[in-house]
Amino acid sequence: MKTVAVLGATGSIGASALDVIARHPDRFRAGALAAHRNVDALAALCARFKPDLAVIADASREADLRARLRVAGIATRVASGAQALIEAATLASCDTVIAAIVGAAGLESTLAAASAGKRLLLANKEAVVMAGPLLRAALDAGGGELLPIDSEHNAVFQCLPPARSGLDAAGVRRILLTASGGPFRGHKREALHDVTPARACAHPNWSMGRKISVDSATLMNKGLEVIEAHFLFDAPPERIEVVVHPQSIVHSMVEYADGSVLAQLGNPDMRTALAHALAWPERVAAGVAPLDLLKIARLDFEAPDRETFACLDLAYGALEQGGSAPIVLNAANEEAVAAFLDQGLAFVAIPQVIESTLEKVQGAPARTLPEVVDVDLTARRVAQRIIASAKV
Ligand code: NDP
Q1: What three-state secondary structure class fits 169?
Q2: C-beta of 124 in contact with ligand 1 (< 6 A)
Q3: Gap from CA of 294 to ligand 1 centroid (Å)
Q4: Residue 177 — φ and ψ, nearest 5°?
C-alpha cells in the first residue's frame, strides 16, 4: 500500500492522479491533499478520500475549509500557508508525493519532498526549470527517487534502460520530444494578433490547466520541457530535439547509436503517466481507452515553426546561456501568461516580454534556494514593468 500526498489536488493533474488512486484502493491511499484557494473542490475531495491532512495554501480560506469539514463530520486535519505545503510534502505517513502545483509556487514543496526521500512524481516542470541542480542535490541527499509525470519525460523514462548510467554509456544518441503544436499549429504570427484566452486554452488533444494550455499554444511548454529533459536525463541541449506530432499519440522517443528509435505510444490521457509512475516498476490499469491504431491510421511529424513560436528558441537560448537564465525565462513567462489571461496583454507579446526580461536580468548562477527566489522575484518585477509599458 502506497500513501500519496497530492500537491495541486484540485487541478487537472490532481484529478487524473486521484482517479488512478481511486481505481486501486488495495494499492494506493491519498494521505494528504493540497490546493491553493479552491475550498469547494478541496472539501469535496476530503469527503471522498478522507486524507490525514488537507492543506489550503491561502491562509484566509483555512477557517472556511475547517468549518466545512466539521459540518460534514470529516476528521481530516487542516493546515494552511506555505509551511503547511512543506508539511504535506514531507508527511511521515506518505511515501509518495505528486508535485502538481502549477508554476514557481510548487518549488519549495517539490524540493522538500525530494530532501525527505519521498518517491517524487514530478509534474511541476517549472520547479525543475528554476532549480534543476538543487533538485538533483535534494534527491541525492534524501535518497528518494524521481519519476517524471510530464507525458514526454515519462515516455523518455520508459524508453531508457533502467540503469541510469548516462546517455553515452546507454548508447543514446538523441532524445526526441514530441509536441502537438498546440491550437495555432500552421498559423503565422500575423494571424495571432487577436487571439483570446479562450482560443489559446482550447488545446486540440489535451485537457489541462490554463497556464500550461497557454504555454502549449506559444510552444513555451516545449521549451520548458527541453530544459526539464536536460536536468532529468543529463542531456546537453544539442541532443534534445523537438518534433511536432499533431496526433499526440507518440509521447516522445529515444534514438540509440545503432539507429533504433524507441517510442512510447498511448492515447493522450495523463492517467497513463500517473499510473505508470504510481505503480512503477509494476503496471496497473489507468482507466485509459486502448489505443486503436487502425482508427488513428496515420502519425504525422513535422518541424516546429520556430519563427512564429519564438518561445521555443528563447528556452533553448536560456538553457545554453545557463546560470540563472532559465529562472528568468520561467518568471517572465509566468508573468506574461498571467497578464495575457487576466489583463489583456496580446498573445504575440508573450515572447517579447520574455526576451526583453532576459536581456535586462542577467543574474549570476543561483546556487541556493534563497538565491533562486531572489532571481525569480527580480525577473518578475522587471517583466511586470515591461508588461505595463507594452499595454495600450
Ligand atoms: P491546474 O491549473 O489545473 O491546477 C493547479 C493546481 O495547483 C491546483 O490544485 C491549484 O489549486 C494549485 N495551486 C496553484 N497555485 C498554488 C499555490 N500558490 N499554492 C498551492 N497550490 C497552488 O494545473 P495543471 O494540473 O494543468 O498543471 C499542474 C502542473 O503540472 C504544472 O506545472 C503543469 O505544467 C504540469 N503538467 C500538467 C499537465 C496537464 O495535463 N495538465 C501535463 C504535464 C505537466 P487551486 O485549485 O486551489 O487554485
Answers
A1: coil
A2: yes
A3: 34
A4: -90, 130
Please work out whether the CB of residue 325 comes within 6 Å of at least one atom of ligand 1: no
Q: CB-based contacts of 278: which residues, under 8 Å, 6+ apart?
A: 2, 4, 17, 20, 21, 27, 28, 96, 121, 284
CA–CA dist 311, 298 (Å, integer): 28
CB of 99 within 6 A of ligand 1: the answer is no
**Which phi-psi region, left, alpha or beta, contains residue 336 (left: φ > 0; alpha: ψ -120 to 50)?**
alpha
Q: How far is ligand 1, taken at its centre, from the CA of residue 348, in Å?
A: 24
Cell numbers describing residue 179: 509536441
pLDDT 10s digits, 127-173: 999 999 999 999 999 999 999 999 999 999 999 998 767 899 999 99
Write the CB contacts of 216 (distance below 8 Å, at least 6 apart in sequence): 180, 182, 183, 203, 206, 208, 222
Q: Is the pTM of this model over 0.70?
A: yes
**For residues 365 and 134, what is the distance between their CA atoms, to the nearest angstrom?**
12
Residues 6 or more apart whose Cβ sits within 8 Å of residue 254:
156, 159, 160, 172, 174, 175, 176, 261, 262
